[in-house]
Amino acid sequence: MRFLPRLVISAALGIATFLGWRLLLQSPTTGQGGDVSPKMKEGFTLTLDTFLHVQQLRKKRLRAFCSQPGRVTTLPRSQEERAHLLSSLRVSTKLDLLYCQVPSTGMEGWQQLLGKLEEKENVTLQVPIPYPQSHALETRLSEFNLTAIEAMLGSYTKVLFVRDPFQRLVSAFMQGMGGSPSFSSFVQDVLDSGQHNARENWKPLVSLCRPCLVQYDYVVMFGFLRQELGHLLRRAGLPADIPLREFTDTQVRWTYSWLSEQMFSELSLQQKKQLSHFYRWDLSAFLFSSSLLSDLLSTPETW
């Protein structure tokens, strides 16, 4: 009986996902702050101009966030400090690609895609750097020396995958993280542990991906992965002819919006405000136009 609430939610999620496939999706028009709001049926075409415009707006917001005092903008000289700071960053040395690997952001199919690209013999680098000579998939950036890291940060295509923090929390709960019998108790456990002891499944993206240190070339939002990846691959000089069937985030985006509202209603006002503070960096650095936590930020950032 302990996990009955999660089983009920899982069943509802399955039904809602099925219904979500049948609903009209919103079309890729540029909304407030540069986010993309879908309104057309699945199969719409996201134009390159729209994709690039949205990228400019997302990065502009990120630059404004990073211009505030106290942001981490330089690499530490200590290897131990770098290992901690860069623990979530991965590189593909064959593809000249760097990305932040974070659970619950909808990028589960990304590693499969990179694996397929790695297997293509005709993938060649436009301007390869001499670090390292051997190629490996999903190599930790922190494993390289400082000279190689600086070269990679300066020349690799860097991709950041972003998802609404509350939806990441819901996803972690649905995956059984924490073992709490209810979502409310799960949230309380997260809040009690604090940011420094938070698991990567729900730790703020700013703390994991260091967007003020790493100048990401592309910021890809959950809900638009499949539409944006084709443009991203072409812009990075990579083959874009690999099927992207594994990226179904467009279909589940509505489902998670509905599910988040249901689970948000289970929380006390104090928990909601504490969560808003917990994710204040992400809410400031990225635009989540329909985030349930955004309206709860009471004062400007002073951290």
Characterise the protein shown here.
There is one protein chain. The chain has 303 residues and is of the alpha/beta class. The chain has one domain (29-296). It is built from 12 helices and 7 strands. It has helices at residues 4-22, 48-66, 79-85, 110-119, 146-155, 165-174, 183-193, 205-209, 225-235, 249-264, 269-278, 280-285, and strands spanning 29-30, 36-37, 89-92, 97-100, 139-140, 157-162, 218-221. A 5-stranded mixed sheet has the order 5-3-4-6-7, with helices on both faces. Strands 1-2 form a two-stranded antiparallel ribbon. β1 (29-30) and β2 (36-37) form a beta hairpin. α7 packs across α11 (269-278). Mean pLDDT is 79; it is low at 15-33, 36-41, 123-136 and 299-303.
Fraction of residues in helices? 40-55%
Walk across the major sheet and give the strand order: 5-3-4-6-7
Name the assembly state: single chain
The rounded distance between the terminal residues' Cα atoms is 42 Å
Low-pLDDT ranges: 15-33, 36-41, 123-136, 299-303
Can you count the beta strands? Answer: 7
Q: What is the helix/strand order? A: HEEHHEEHEHEHHHEHHHH
Number of domains: 1
- Tally the helices: what do you get? 12
Structural class: alpha/beta
Report strand %. Answer: 5-15%
Largest sheet descriptor: 5 strands, mixed
Overall pLDDT metric: 79
